[in-house]
Design goal:
There is one protein chain. Helix content is about 30%, strand content about 25%. The chain has about 525 residues and is α+β, with helices and mostly antiparallel strands. The strands form 4 sheets. Strands 3, 4, 5, 6, 11, 12, 13, 14, 15 and 16 form a 10-stranded mixed sheet that branches. Strands 1, 2, 7, 8, 9, 10, 17, 18 and 19 form a 9-stranded mixed sheet that branches. The C terminus is likely disordered.
């Protein structure tokens, strides 16, 4: 198999030139998971496709999630069986076919406070597993198991088992959300899509009532240009209202930003072999294992400030600590919190207008696509797990007026790195010996790059010093930063505290000029 196209300065320049010089079938605006998914869906149907993102791939909502690929156990209680079935099928597809190198099973405990909860919760989890097994794809995870107090104390020594009647252990999956987005984008580029980050939409082109493209600006060079396209798909998430204003207020989706925050605490602070899920007064609480840490989330509060920089308040942090401490023998406090991140969910409000001119498809409780004016498709709502379905639905609507367009086939298109992953995993000891890197480090690289680990190790062969761990982040190797620059579109080092993009620091590798678009963490 040939090596995938790298996202780098040359590929970005080529993408911008291609989009400026010719007509596209589909232009996607937005480099989150839905946008890159739509670009991949469209290009694998044989269409000429471009994607532009004003910041970095996954710079917004798609890098600030709970990192879960799940069916949504809580939706069963709402009787939203269709949504759960759809998400469980997508979970199995990602685990077993599309991204086995990125998505992996993770065990959760559902603590039971009262004995009468066991048959009720147990029936729900059994239905959850049954729906997954009845789906079109392999489940990719083990079945649930009832856990009683003695075994719960062994699995989770730091949990207050004396006040519980055991738990139910079940499995969902998790993923590095930003890496998933970057990998989908790279897969789209490898199939012929033109991908350019740091490119901002400044207006829309019209011919009569129809949208025929966009006016854009290359933010790296300050150059304005136009992109003509038969259809524009807006996948801008919480920025949907701003895009609609550019159209002249003719949008039909009303999107509110809801803030969700997560705490990051050391793994050794909570001794447990599994994560946790439990109800809270407002939603559910997840305690998710994440390498050397736990991710604890989340909240759901309105946000009407700067969309690019959502922030956690002390009230948010106190709320999560209060909820998680109900489970723990030794409570967490602010000193245990090593990091906090906040993201915004694009939540749909009722449609602002309806009528014969507004072609609307209500596809599920979670997402909606609509074509408010000819040549423009809007998509909003949804969640990370079902990005592929959302992308398919958006492209279906975008090509409804085009003849001889093939149906979606992204359920049969593995992401780059999936090919060769199992073989390289079997060869992990040999790879460790040849590269002079510990087997544990090789496992880490396989879990981030899959079959593309050969490209990473080739850089180490050229520059052995890149096998050294990063200072203050020793779970990562220096080669991962270099690879992010040369292959994954990284252009800037961004401080988490920087309030404005103007405060970004350029990544300027010696002898290579600027790097490509994305974040230096491999987004």
């Amino acid at each position: 198999m040939s090596r995938p196209i790298a996202l780098n300065p040359d590929s970005r320049a080529a993408a911008l030139a291609a989009m400026a010089s010719g007509d596209l079938d589909v232009l996607v605006v937005g480099g989150g998971v839905v946008g890159v998914g739509a670009a991949l869906d469209a290009v694998t149907r044989g269409l000429n496709v471009g994607l532009i993102e004003q910041r970095d791939l996954a710079s917004g909502t798609s890098s600030r999630s709970s990192k879960l690929v799940h069916g949504g156990l809580r939706y069963l209680e709402m009787c939203d069986f269709g949504l759960v079935k759809e998400a469980l099928e997508e979970r199995g597809l990602l685990l077993t076919r599309l991204a086995p190198h990125l998505v992996r099973p993770v065990p959760f405990l559902y603590p039971l406070e009262h004995a009468y909860e066991r048959p009720y919760v147990g029936a729900g989890v059994a239905l959850y597993d049954a729906m997954a097994m009845a789906g079109r794809y392999e489940t990719g995870v083990p079945r649930h198991k009832h856990v009683f107090r003695k075994e719960l104390a062994r699995l989770a020594p730091d949990v207050r088992t004396d006040e519980l009647h055991g738990a139910i252990r079940y499995y969902d999956a998790q993923v590095d959300d930003a890496r998933l987005v970057m990998t989908i984008a790279r897969t789209a580029a490898n199939n012929g899509a033109h991908v350019a980050t740091r490119t901002k939409v400044t207006g829309f082109l019209r011919e009569g009532e129809r949208i025929v493209g966009v006016e854009a600006r290359d933010l790296e060079n300050g150059v304005d240009f136009t992109v003509r396209a038969r259809t524009v798909i807006n996948a801008a998430g919480v920025w949907t209202d701003q895009i609609q204003e550019m159209v002249g207020g003719e949008g039909a989706l009303d999107v509110d930003a809801s803030k969700g925050i997560h705490l990051v605490v050391p793994r050794d602070r909570i001794r447990s072999e599994c994560g946790f899920i439990t109800k809270t007064p407002h939603s559910v609480l997840f305690v998710i294992p994440w390498g050397r840490h736990w991710i604890i989330g989340t909240t759901d509060t309105p946000w009407d400030l700067d969309l690019a920089h959502p922030a956690a308040s002390r009230t948010d942090i106190d709320y999560l600590l209060e909820q998680v401490n109900k489970l723990l023998k030794v409570p967490l406090d602010h000193d245990d919190v090593e990091g906090v991140y906040a993201g915004l969910r694009p939540l749909l409000k009722p449609l602002r207008k309806a009528g014969v001119e507004a072609e609307t498809t209500k596809l599920s409780r979670e997402h909606t696509t609509i074509s408010p004016v000819p040549g423009l498709v809007l998509i909003a709502g949804g969640k990370l797990t079902t990005y592929r379905v959302m992308a398919r639905d958006a492209v279906d609507l975008a090509v409804a007026d085009l003849d001889h367009v093939r149906p979606s086939l992204t359920d049969r298109v593995p992401l780059v790195g999936a090919y060769g992953f199992e073989a390289r995993t079997n060869q992990r000891v040999a790879l460790s010996r040849v590269a002079g890197i510990g087997v544990g480090r090789i496992d880490h690289l396989l879990g981030r790059y899959g079959g593309l680990v050969d490209e990473v190790l080739a850089l180490v062969e050229q520059r052995p010093e890149l096998a050294q761990p990063l200072q203050h982040a020793d779970e990562y190797l220096a080669v991962e930063v270099v690879y992010a620059v040369t292959h994954e579109g990284a252009r800037h080092l961004r401080s988490a505290r920087a309030p404005h993009p103007d405060l970004d620091r350029d990544l300027r590798p010696r002898g290579r000029g600027r790097a490509g678009g994305g974040s230096a963490d491999g987004r």
